[in-house]
Amino acid sequence: MQNLNKRYLQDPNMVSRVIVDETILVPIRQNVGDMESIYTLNETATLAWSLMDGENTLEEIRDRIVVEYDVDEEDAQLDLLELIAQLQEIGALQEL
Amino acid sequence: MDCPYIPDRKLGDLSYKLLEKVGRNRIPIAGSIELTFRCNLRCQHCYVSHGHNGMPGKQELSLAEIKRIFDQIAEGGTLWLLITGGEPFMRRDFKEIYLYAKQKGFLITLFTNGTLITPRMADFFAEYRPYKIDITLYGYRKETYENVTGIPGSYEKCYRGIELLHERGIPLGLKTMLMTLTQDELWDMKQYAEELGVRFRYDAMINAGLERDLEPVSFRLAPEDIIQIELQDQPLVDEMREYFDLRKDIKVDPHQLYVCSAGLRSFHIDPYGKLSLCMMAREQEYDLLSGSFKRGWDDFLAQVRTQKTENERECNSCSLISICGQCPGWSYIEHGDEYTKVDYLCQMTHLRAEKFGFIHL
């Protein structure tokens, strides 16, 4: 079970751009992510990403998603944990 | 020259997804910037040959000015950025410029002649990878290459540059200008690229110099000769037919001067901070040192973009208008106005339509 008190910080080597409502993550350095790819985030993931500032805990981020999108807490948590795993895989996050 | 503003399909479906979302909205999603007109080569056909040593009395953008412009175009929504020249590596601060562009999150394509790529520079690109580097070949054999470039030793430097990038797995494309000076070695160059496993393309559309210098035009192949070459290139034939098929029921407003994506999704900036619709159409420029990119894009280019053609223009009634490469920028540098038909482009369009089968509905 993931510790929901964990905090994450966006890796400075991943730039996020918002273009025509699409959030795009662009890696700067080779050791971050798969350089043949750039990554797009959906609306919920965009909110979660914006909250990964090293201050908010996973629990706080989950709760924001529940409030903003009126979704079930369990579903929000599962989605969030999956997103964290994906972002870690591409090197977009630093765990504090 | 080919129009460099249409992003290709290499990056999954994101390009299409974004372009679809952009739709008819005017968003400057793709831009190009010439960092300098200076170049270490002296190519016979070059369209900026007057600027090889820099333009007298003109000051290139400083690093700080370029950074400010990058801030503004990122804010405006630019994702694809083409960095070109001249030869962009002639800028001593190239790395700083490039890194700043990376930090802004642009997907960077770099056009270079490849001759100034050192192992250290290749290592730099391996760490901070571009979306793509396109290197222009001016021949397959040394004699041909250096006859075009005018610089002894440039051939070895170019091919070494290609190897340095290729062995580091940096996304690479090779291209050439198909002209009288290089035509005999086209297929050798293509084969070389294929053996490396990199994309190859050629461009036979030699345009006049930006100062209305007609010298480059003398190296053009005749349209009939270009078609003969294109017909030997089956993938190109297929691509052309697919394109014609897509365009057959497109209605183009003949009274609209600009019907391409210039000023709609793309823009160009020259070494001195002048913003224009594209690399070809520079006769109407906006000074980014005096005003913001937002003003330049929202007001100035919007107005340039919506200009009307002259009513009597003979192209207005042409059934091939939806597939024609006729361009106001070409007209200007060849004829001194934006309306006069460029015969060479016209002949190419008619021949291609005939040979590749275009039926306008």
Q: Total helix count of chain B?
A: 12
Number of helices of chain A: 3
Strand order of the largest sheet of chain B: 6-5-4-3-2-1-7-8-9
How would a textbook summarize the main sheet of chain B? 9 strands, mixed
- What's the average pLDDT of chain B? 90
So what's the oligomer here? Answer: heterodimer
Give a written overview of the molecule.
The complex is a heterodimer of chains A (96) and B (361). With 96 residues, chain A is of the alpha+beta class. Chain A has helices at residues 43-50, 58-69, 73-89, and strands spanning 7-10, 14-19, 22-27, 39-41, 53-57, 93-95. Chain B has 361 residues and is of the alpha/beta class. Chain B is 37% helix and 12% strand. In chain B, strands 6-5-4-3-2-1-7-8-9 form a nine-stranded mixed β-sheet, covered by helices on one side. In chain B, helix 2 (63-76) packs parallel to helix 3 (94-103). Chains A and B meet through strand 2 and strand 3 of A and helix 1 of B.
Secondary structure: elements and pairs:
The complex is a heterodimer of chains A (96) and B (361).
Chain A: E1 7-10, E2 14-19, E3 22-27, E4 39-41, H1 43-50, E5 53-57, H2 58-69, H3 73-89, E6 93-95
Antiparallel strand pairs in A: 1-5, 1-6, 2-3, 3-4
Helix pairs in contact in A: 2-3
Chain B: H1 14-22, E1 30-34, H2 63-76, E2 80-84, H3 94-103, E3 107-112, H4 119-127, E4 132-137, H5 142-149, H6 154-166, E5 172-177, H7 186-196, E6 199-203, H8 223-231, H9 234-247, E7 266-269, E8 274-276, E9 286-287, H10 293-305, H11 328-335, H12 343-356
Parallel strand pairs in B: 1-2, 1-7, 2-3, 3-4, 4-5, 5-6
Antiparallel strand pairs in B: 7-8, 8-9
Helix pairs in contact in B: 2-3, 8-12
